[in-house]
Each structure stands twice: as C-alpha cells, then as structure tokens.
Amino acid sequence: MWKKVFFISATIALSAFISCRKATVEIEDPAVKVVSELRRVSRLSLAEMSVSKVGTISDRGATGFASLLNMLKVGDRIGVYSYHTYLEAYIDLDALEADDLEVDEARHHVRLVLPPVQVRLSGRDATVTEEHYRVTGMRSTISPVERAQLKELMNTTLRNELKADDEYGERIRAAAREKAVGYFSALLRMMGYDSDITFK
Amino acid sequence: MTVSMKYIVKAIIYIAAILAIAGACIWVYERFAEKPQGGMQTDQARIEGIRQMVSLCTLEIEDEVVLRDSIHGKWLLAKARLSGEVRFDLEQLRWDTRGDTLVVCLPRETVVVREAVSSGAYEVIDTWDNTLLGLGKLTTAEENALKRRLTSRYRAEIYRRGYVERARESALQTLRQLTSALPGSPVIVEASPHSPRRL
Lengths: 200, 199
What we know:
- The structure holds two protein chains of two kinds.
- Chain A is an alpha+beta fold.
- Chain A has one domain.
- Chain A is 38% helix and 36% strand.
- Chain A contains four helices and seven strands; from the N terminus they run H-E-H-E-E-E-E-E-H-H-E.
- In chain A, strands 1, 2, 5 and 6 form a four-stranded antiparallel beta sheet that branches. A three-stranded mixed beta sheet of chain A has the order 3-4-7, covered by helices on one side.
- Chain A starts with a helix and ends with a strand.
- About 13% of the residues of chain A have low confidence.
- By secondary structure, chain B is of the alpha+beta class.
- Chain B is built from three helices and eight strands; from the N terminus they run αβββββββααβ.
- In chain B, the strands form two sheets. In chain B, strands 2, 3, 6 and 7 form a four-stranded antiparallel beta sheet that branches. In chain B, strands 4-5-8 form a three-stranded mixed beta sheet, with helices on one face.
- The model of chain B has no long low-confidence stretch (mean pLDDT 86).
- At the A-B interface, strand 1, helix 2, strand 2, strand 5 and helix 3 of A face helix 1, strand 1, strand 2, strand 3 and strand 6 of B.
C-alpha cells in the first residue's frame, strides 16, 4: 500500500517538475528598447563629482507588525549596499555670444566671458557594491527586488539632500571655474596672448 | 481514552489550529502586504572625489530598455533607463603647425554609459531560477554581471546606430566655431586619423 502511494506521489512530482521545466523558454534576448531619446548638445564638462550613498536592509528599522514578525523569525538578515552618483559641472557652449570674446591685438590681450557654470546629475552606477551581507538561520536571502527598492530609496534621499544643501553644487562649480580659467588661459598663452577670463 | 487524555488531545488540536491560523495570517501578510520600507535605511551622501576635465559632449542618448538575461541558470527580467554620452577629451587635442596655419586634431571619443537618475530608473519585474531545484536567488555579483552585460550591449548599440559618427561631426563643427573666434593664425580642425573605436 505504502509503496503504491510513494510510487504515485513520485510520478506526480516528477511529471509536475518536467512540465515546469518545459514551461520556460531559455532565449538570450538582447536588451529590448522601449523608449529612446536623442539630444544634440554642446556641453563643455569641466568637473565631475562622485557622490557615494550607502543603504542598509535589515530588521532594525522595521516597525509595528513587521518588527513583531522579525522577532519571531530565526536568524539575522542584514545587507549593506553602496553605489556612486555623478554630478557634472559644465558650460553650455551654445550660450557663447560674439561679444563674449574681445581681442586687443596691440596689447596681445584677450578678454573672454564664459557662460555660467551649471550643475547636473549625469547618472549613476548601474551596479551596486555589496559592502556587507549576513543572512543566517531560517531567513530568506536578499532579493534583487529588495535591492532595486533600496536603490530607489537611496536615489530619492540623495536627490533631496542635493536639493536641500548646495555645498555639493558650490564645490563642483568652484572646481569647474578653476579648470576653465586654467585651460583657456593656457590655450591663449600658447597662441601668444594674455587673458582675462570671467563668467557671466 | 480517559478524560484527561481527551483534554490533552483537544488542547493539542486547538494549539495546532491556532498555530496554523497564525502561520496563514503571517503568510498572507508577507505575500500581499507591500514590502516594508521600514527595514531600509540610508546614510548621508558622501563626496568621494572631484575630477577636473575639459570634455566636450555633443550627443546625449537616453533609452528605456528591458533586461531579460540569465546567469548560472538564474533569470532576471527588469526595466532600466540608461543614458549614454559621447565625449571628446579636449585636453588631448593635438596641435600641429602647417606653414602659418594651426591644425587641431580631435581625439578619439569616449562613450559613457550610466543608469539614469530619474525615479524608477531600475525596476525588477521578475526573477526565476531554471536550475534543478529552482530555489536560488540572484546574488549581487550575478545581478551586477547581468547589468554589466547590458551596459556593454548598449554601448555597442550606440556605435551600431551611428551616433558616434554623428557626435564626432558635431564636435568638429563646435570646435571650428570656437577656434574661428580665436586670435592669431588660422586654425583647421580635423578628426583623429584613427577611425573611431568599434566594439
């Protein structure tokens, strides 16, 4: 009797397993493009700031029912992740006007007024760095969905921090101005001209 | 069966029922409740460094792509917004003199591919495991490998669509306008004698 039950269960399990295997089709699809945007720009990038953000997935921050549930679970679950976001300081060369450059041939002197330095978020690392990972006992591993949610949360808080505090912007703008003055004055010196470079 | 035995059996049944109901409630909560964000914290952003450069960017591309790829039998289906930029390092400009004319040579391009920073730029739609037991989850290293593959395919796509050639033409045009305003000898702007990088 038991042998029969075992045989039937094994057959059902095996057939279910085979049918599951057949249900998925393994095709290495290339990335499928959904939306595309192409912009012609004329941006002279002068400085790039790399900002690191660290985020944690753990039981500690949980409140209410979730924290009660975590107390009942056996083991620990903690993951610490980081990634970089990049700020770029640039000048828009399309904003240069004819009277922004004055040449005094007699004195071999050039006065150049550059467009204002602007700052933008130019992107972030697609990958994340796993700084720490410890999942013990009966706890489930940290899933890609959770990592994506954490990255989204980190991105939102970073954008809020950048909006609230212009320290980041000021530092990168200063570095960009310094670079622009250095580059253009060296270029003009190479051509035999002294220069006076300012920003709008 | 004695009376005390009956009570014990009843008690066991009640406890088992309570545990089963509690387990079902927990399962339903975990399954259908929104994932608690309370278990996630972020630290203050930290400046890692500032790099100065003189880099001319003439073309910017932003694409929303679907990533469907696998590694070690584990699959990932996600939506990602990528941004690509074609840049030319103006500190690498080569200046030569031909008679009384200055010849400026535009250096090779750099294609920078990054994930966009707008909200929802990376969303995981589904993950599954096609290995024998089918219980594995994608680790961070595996997910990173899939993302690297995606960005590398995207970079190749930028070359394939001819965007780099277009960016180079734009860069030459911008440099011609800039140098024409400069004092001194006439300036000719040329592309690098090397063909653009191909992937």
